[in-house]
Amino acid sequence: MTENRIEKDPLGELPVPSSALYGVQTERARQNFQISGLLPRPAFVDAMVSIKRAAAQVHRKTGRLETHLADAIIKAADEILAGQHRAHFVVDPYQAGAGTSHNMNVNEVLANRANEILGGKRGDYKPIHPNDHVNMAQSTNDTIPTAIRLAALSILPKLLDAMSALAKAFLAKGKEFDGIVKSGRTHLQDATPIRLGQEFSAFGHSVERSARRIESAADFLRDLGIGGTAVGTGLNAEPEYAKLMIEALNQLPGLTVRLGADAVQLMQSMGDVSGFSGAVRSYAVDLGKIASDIRLLASGPRTGFGEIALPAVQPGSSIMPGKVNPSIAEMVNMVCFQAIGNDTAIAAAAEAGQLELNVMMPLIAHDLVFTLEILTNATRVFTERCVAGIEADAAQCAHWLELSPAIVTALAPRIGYAEAAKLAKEAVERKMTVRQLAEEKKLLSAKELDEILDLRAMTEPGVPGER
Predict the structure, then answer these.
(1) For the stretch 219-256, what's the b/e string if a residue is b when 16 or more beta carbons lie within 10 angstroms of its beta carbon?
(2) In degrees, to the nearest 5, what angle opens at C-alpha 119 toward C-alphas 84 and 103?
(3) b/e per residue, 413-426, with b = 16+ CB within 10 A?
(4) CATH number at residue 412
(5) Which of 157, 183, 361, 376 has CA 20 to 30 A from 444's CA?
(6) DSSP string covering 215-274
C-alpha cells in the first residue's frame, strides 16, 4: 500500500501520498475530478512554472522575498523546466472553474521541491509555503490567462515552421507539375482546363496565407495582464511588479511579450485567445479541404480520378490484398475535424465568462494547446510522408481532359453560348470529344480549331484564338 502523509487545508485534514510533490489542495482536485484521465499539456505546465519562476526573480529583486527562498523556488522551477518531476502535475483539465487547481498544483510542487532543496520535508511547507511564497502577488485569475498566452506563443513557432515546410513542398510540386494540363472540376463536374501545377501551387499559397493570419492573431496574445491579481486591479502586488514580470518573462528563449494596457479587460475577456484560436481554425479548415482534394485526385487507381499517386505507407485493407489507402491524408482530415471542434468549444467557453473572470479557462487552455500540438504534428507528417512523395500521372490527366465536354467553353466566343451548350450535350450523348464533333460538323477550320482548342493556352488569361 502507498504510504501517506497527512496535510491540512481550510477544509480539514487529508491523506496525501508520501512520495507526491503536490499537496492537499491538489489531492482534493485529483479526487474530485476523475473525469477524462487526461493530464495538463506539458506546454501549459511549462508556462505556469515559468510564471512562478519569474515572480520569484521579481520578488528577490524587490526584496519582498528573501534571497535564499527565491533561489530555491527558481532552482525547483529550473528542474521542472528541464523535464523533471512531471509526474506530479496530475489535475484533470475538466476541473473547478478558472484553474485554481492547476495553479495550486504548481504552487505545491514548487514549494515542496524548494523546501527539499533547503533541507525540509515534503508536506511541511517550511520555510516556503505554496500560497505565501510561490503564489506571492499572484492569483489564479491572472496567472492562468497569462499561462494560456505563454503556452500558445511558446509552441507556435513549431506550427509555423511545419506550415512553411508544407507550403514549400506544395510549391515545389507546383513547379514540377506545371507542364501537366488536366480537367478542372467545379461542383465535382467537368470544368475548363487547369494545370496540375496550378492546383498544387494554390495549395501552397493557401497554407502561406493561413500562416500570416495566425501570426497576426498571435500578436494580441503578447499583451499580458499579469499583476492584475484577483480582479485586474493589482491588489497585493507592488506597483512595479507587473513591469518587472514582463522584463523577467521576456528573458525566456524566443518569447516577446508586453504589459497590457488594461489588466481588468485582459482578465474579463478571452477575446484575444478565441481570436487566435479562430485563425488556427481557419488553417484547419483549409488544410482539411486540401487533404480531401489530395484524396480525391488520388482516388482509384482504376475507377477514380487517378491523376496523382501517393506514397504507400501501409497496407490499406485487412481483406482486400494490394489495396493502398490515402492514410496520411485521412489522418490529416481527422486532426482538422478535432481542431475545428476544439475551436467551437473554445468559443463557447470564451463567451461563458462572467464579469471580472472567465471560469472556463482550464478547458480553453487544454483545447488550444492540444490543437496547436496535433496540427503541428499532422502538418509535419503530411509534408514528409505524403506531399513530398506525390507523383503525377500525366497520361491519366490528359485522358480525362480530352474527354471533358467543358473545353467547349473555348468555342463559345465564336459560336455562341447556346450552340456551344448543344455541342457539349451531343458530345456526351455520342461519346465523342468536343474536337471530334466540331471537326465532323465543320464548325471551324482545322487551323482555327487548333488555335482555339489549345488546351495549355486555356489555362492562362485570354480569349481562345485571339492571343
Answers:
(1) eebbbbbbbbbbbbebeebbeebbebbbebbeebeeee
(2) 50
(3) ebbeeeebeebbee
(4) 1.10.40.30
(5) 183
(6) HHHHGGGGEE-TT-TTTSS-TTS-TTHHHHHHHHHTTSTT---EE-S-HHHHHH--HHHH
Grid cell of 48 as nine digits: 505556469
Give the model's confidence band at 51: pLDDT under 50 very low, under 70 low, under 90 confident, else very high.
Answer: very high
- Chain centroid offset of residue 168 CA: 19
Nearest C-alpha neighbor of 455 from the set 421, 408, 422: 408
Closest listed residue to residue 364, CA positions, set 437, 458, 269:
269
Pairing, β 223-224 against β 258-259:
parallel
Work out the average pLDDT over 69-78. 98
pLDDT band of residue 254 (cuts 50, 70, 90) is very high
Position with higher pLDDT, 224 vs 439: 224
Indicate whether 57 and 160 sit together in one domain: no
With a pLDDT cut of 70, the percent of the chain lying above it is 99
Residue 427 sits in which domain range? 404-459
* DSSP per-residue letters across 54-89: HHHHHHHHHTSS-HHHHHHHHHHHHHHHTTTTGGG-
Q: Is the backbone peptide bond immediately before 127 cis, with ω within 30 degrees of 0? A: yes
In a domain, 247, yes or no: no
Residue 118 grid coordinates: 533547503
CA distance 319 to 453: 46
φ, ψ of residue 246 to 5 degrees: the values are -60, -45
pLDDT for the residue 467: 66
* In 298-360, alpha helices (H): 327-351
DSSP for 376-390 reads: HHHHHHHHHHTGGG-
C-alpha cell belonging to residue 95? 476541473
Domains: count for the chain: 3
Catalytic residues: 317
Q: Kindly state whether residues 330 and 418 are assigned to the same domain.
A: no
Taking the model in full, what pTM does it have? 0.96
CATH of the domain at 367: 1.20.200.10
Contact status, residue 261 vs residue 164, Cβ threshold 8 Å: no
**The domain boundary residue, chosen from 392, 415, 448:** 392
Strands 391-392 and 181-186: unpaired
In the listed set 107, 136, 165, which residue is the last one of a domain according to the structure? Answer: 136
- Quote the distance between the C-alpha of residue 19 and its chain's center: 36
